[in-house]
Design brief:
The N terminus is likely disordered. Helices cover about 20% and strands about 35% of the residues. The chain has a 3-stranded antiparallel beta sheet with strand order 1-6-5, with helices on one face. The chain is α+β, with helices and mostly antiparallel strands and about 130 residues long. β3 and β4 form a beta hairpin. The chain is globular and about 45 Å long. The longest helix is centred in the first third of the chain and has 16 residues.
C-alpha cells in the first residue's frame, strides 16, 4: 500500500512539474537566450538516490555540477552533493546568483527521481526550485 501511495504522489508531482506554477522554476542544461542571470545544470555527476520500488538502508544523494552566468558569461561553476544534510549549501549559492526572488527559495530537488529498472538519460535531468 505504501508503494502504491508513493507512486501516486510521484505521478502527481511529475504531472504538475510539466506545467510549473509560478512558485517553481527549472534549471536545465542550456542557456536561455533572453536571460540576464542564469544557472545552468552542467551535468549530474552521480545519482545514488534510492530508486522507487527498492528498499534501501540509505536514502542516497545526487551530485550535480552547476554554472552561474551573467550576460551569457560564466561567473562560477561548482559541484554540490544534495542530500538532507547539505542542501543548504546549494541554497546559499543559488541565492547569490539568482534574481531577487531567490531569497524566498524553500526547496531544491533533482528530477526525475530514479525508479527501479529505469535508466535516466543525462539530458532528462533538471533541478527544480520551489519558492
Amino acid at each position: 500500500m505504501k508503494k502504491i501511495f508513493a507512486v501516486m504522489i510521484f505521478a502527481f508531482l511529475m504531472s504538475h512539474c510539466a506545467s510549473l506554477p509560478e512558485s517553481l522554476n527549472e534549471i536545465n542544461q542550456k542557456l536561455d537566450s533572453k536571460a540576464v542571470e542564469e544557472i545552468v545544470l552542467v551535468k549530474v555527476i552521480d545519482d545514488s538516490r534510492c530508486p522507487e520500488g527498492v528498499q534501501c538502508v540509505w536514502a542516497g544523494e545526487v551530485t550535480v555540477e552547476v554554472a552561474a552566468y551573467k550576460n551569457k558569461k560564466l561567473v562560477e561553476q561548482t559541484q554540490f552533493t544534495l542530500n538532507k544534510d547539505h542542501i543548504e549549501e546549494m541554497k546559499y549559492w543559488l541565492i547569490k546568483y539568482l534574481p531577487k526572488r531567490s531569497e524566498t527559495l524553500k526547496n531544491i530537488s533533482v528530477l526525475p527521481y530514479p525508479k527501479e529498472g529505469m535508466v535516466i538519460l543525462p539530458q532528462d535531468y533538471k533541478i527544480v526550485l520551489e519558492y
